[in-house]
Amino acid sequence: MSKIKTLGQFIIEKQADFPYAKGELSRLLRDIGIAAKIVNREVNKAGLVNILGEAGTTNVQGEGQKLLDVYANDQFIGALQSGGECCTVISEENDEYITINSDISKNAKYIVAIDPLDGSSNIDVNVAVGTIFSIYRRKSTDGNATIDDILQGGTEQVAAGYIIYGSSTMLVYTTGKGVNGFTLDPSIGEFCLSHPEMKIPKDGTIYSINEGYYTHFPDGVKKFIKYCQVEDKTTNRPYTSRYIGSMVGDLHRNMIKGGIFIYPVTAQAPNGKLRLVYECNPMAFIIEQAGGKATNGYERILTLDVKELHQRSAIFIGSENMVKKAEEMMQMFS
Ligand code: AHG
Ligand code: MN
Ligand code: MN
Ligand code: MN
After folding, report:
1. What are 171's strand-pairing partners?
2. Which end of the chain is more exposed for a tag (fewer CB within 10 A), N or C?
């Protein structure tokens, strides 16, 4: 009996956890897994095919889109359109949400929010990039999904996950019953269970933040950074600074080793840079399910009001006790 458990086998096995499930969420996760394998194929040979560099277009965020941003966006949206389980897609790369009106999707009840390629600035320099996805169930029962279906809070997510295209390619996801990680075995083209029941250590010695913006950080963040740097053997300080510019890469490392990732408000990003719907909420769901914590410095990320598709938020996310310490300083000094 082979020890391998593929993503598909795992999803079907876990479907039993959801008595009402009729397989739609399973098929939706399968569709995302297929698109991830296609994107992975291009990421792995990015230097050989004309997929590096700028697309020459700008997204609603005001960011110059990379060719791989556009390629990944097309692949994930294409997979969701042909899979038939998704009625609406929200993407970092599209100003408005996309209503899927095909015959096979007319009874689809899921909404998918996606950051098709996270860490785009790393593509041309061969540093890990990722994809982040978040899945909601529509509230309305007929016609096209409405804005109320779209702007649901983080606690309404039914599933969330990320793919990291790193030294190996992994898909990590939760449906609210723990977090499981799958590594792509290229020889059989399958994501195979490699990290069952992932848990983030309650403490850690890694802090991830772009200290280039230090001057404009809130005082509470400055105090926390200094706390991380003070010599104190009893609390394993000074900590280690690790920041690669891909939220997925930084969070995955911190999930495995323990650590905190902070993107606070800065002069350039007065509301924070990271997007609530397809970066902060899905990653907060995953990290909480792994035993970690995620706040904006004052409030739990998952309970923040979602008012706009591309709304930004400050985020402090990772090992529970490190986030608590940072939150303490934010509430004391900022
Ligand atoms: P994206 O590539 O999807 O736009 O996201 C990039 C984000 C996140 O992945 C990363 O942590 C952060 O931007 C880095 O921002 P700075 O370059 O400002 O540090
Ligand atoms: Mn971007
Ligand atoms: Mn991103
Ligand atoms: Mn992106």
Report:
1. 163, 182
2. N
Q: What is the dihedral of CA 320, 322, 327, 329, to 10 degrees?
A: 160
What was the ipTM of the complex prediction?
0.98
- Mind listing the pLDDT tens digit for each residue in 148-193? 999 999 999 999 999 999 999 999 999 999 999 999 999 999 999 9
Q: Which of 64, 97, 66, 73 is nearest to 277 (CA)?
A: 97
Rounded to two decimals, the pTM is 0.96
Q: List residues near ligand 1 (CB under 6 A).
A: 63, 92, 115, 118-121, 210, 245-247, 273
Give the integer Cα–Cα distance in Å for 218 and 200: 27
Contact 330, 220 (CB under 8 A): yes
**Most distant pair of Cα atoms in the chain: their distance:** 63
Query: Number of C-alpha atoms within 13 angstroms, CB side, residue 199?
Result: 5
Determine the distance separating the centroid of ligand 2 and the alpha carbon of 68, expressed in angstroms: 11
Short-list 93, 89, 73, CA closest to 138: 89
Q: Which atom of ligand 1 is nearest to the CA of 244?
A: 11
Measured distance CA(33)–CA(26) in Å, rounded: 11
Q: How far apart are CA 297 and CA 116, in angstroms?
A: 26
What separation in Å is there between the alpha carbon of 76 and the centre of ligand 3? 15
3-class secondary-structure state, position 163 = strand
Shortest-distance atom of ligand 1 to CA 132: 3
Asked whether the beta carbons of 46 and 123 are under 8 A apart, the reply is yes
